[in-house]
Model the fold of this input.
Amino acid sequence: MRPSIRPFPFLLAILVGCAVNYLGDWILGQRIEVFYGLQTFNFIWFLQLFVLPLLVGISVSFIYGLGGKWIALLPPLIVRFAAYYETRDLIGIPDGTALMPMGWWGFFVIVAMEVSMIGGIIGEIAIKRIYGRSDPEAGGAIELPSNVVESNVFEHGGDAESSKSKEV
Done:
């Protein structure tokens, strides 16, 4: 039996997703896990929580292909955990701020993971490995089985009983 997870694309997609997420965090320069009061929730914070994970999900899906939407959940989880640990234990909490309460931080992590999954779905749609299967020769047209006549389907709403009663 063939394994359902392809290990090399899986690891490559995770690494690229983590790299995109970490570099995006570094470029934006704001830490989601640090609470400044109402000043915390600004446009950069919005970009970091909603737009960046969307791009992460798209990049993961482009690399992995079908099933990338499920793998896109992992990079935000890994990077958000690493950033929380880095802020708490390595960098330290800046003066006048507090570490985000665990309940809020967990909610923000789940939101980032879900947005990344939406990005994974967009990536799968973009590469046409799912949700867009069409026969290029038929131009995407739907072919009816040979025993179904088009006029019966469209005139009677596809109801077999009503088409039999009309014929009798």
The chain has a mean pLDDT of 82. The helical segments are 7-28, 43-64, 68-71, 74-91, 102-127, 150-155, 160-167. Residues 134-168 form one domain.
